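Justification of resources, computational component.

The compute hours requested in this renewal are based largely on the per-chain cost of generating structure records like the one below. Each record pairs the submitted sequence with a full structure-token output. That output is archived, and it is also reused by downstream analysis tasks.
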Amino acid sequence: MAYTIDLSQKTALITGSNSGIGLGIAWALARAGADVVLNSFTDRDEDHAIAEAISKETGTKARYIKADMSKGEECRQFVMDAGHCDILVNNAGIQHVAPIPDFPVDKWDAIIAINLSSAFHTTAMALPMMRKAGWGRVVNISSAHGLTASPFKSAYVAAKHGIVGLTKTTALETAKEAITCNAICPGYVLTDIVEKQIPDTMKEYGMSREEVIKNVMLVRQPSKEFATVEQLGGTATFLCSDAAAQITGTTVSVDGGWTAL
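The structure output for this chain reads:
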């Protein structure tokens, strides 16, 4: 049996999706036919313009809903305001780096809330919708740091490991239904934020762009190449396809070999 990816008649909710990985996934799902609901904590004209651009190019319905993923009630309201959810992509996340004794408590709380708890809240609201529809896909964006660790990233590592655990539990609770749940674990991804860090890092280390990328940023990524938002979008789209119907409760690493070390 040949499989094609056709997500028409599906509605995909993607948290933290007005830029970076989330936006790349939103574009990929829309190009596969899904209507998409974008999200972030801002409510700017440009946020809504992104949704309009997706809709215009792909012919799907795209809209933007403001919701602060650090607040459980807003996470749940986001799903309710969307009205329907066939595909849920939990992508929202932030980062802070500091040794454990110096790690600010408010930063810890915010990272755990946005990177982990938000996925629990949105999933809790989305699953009844998926069950009613008789089909669903949950794609959680974890990280290479959901499978391994680095110093000074205690909250981020804890949250991303937690996402992997939540993924497994969700998969087991839905295993006898036409619903799957998987986690994508990216390594370093070339987003606008990462791109903007390169000149400062070049200055700090007195290195060329190529040296900074290979010897500083990608020191743990054996391929010495960034993953791209398009590759992550393609991975997410595959996990939403019929070909992936028996893939559930697992992690898919897009990390250039990082977790193979």
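Residues 190-226 form one domain. The mean pLDDT is 97.
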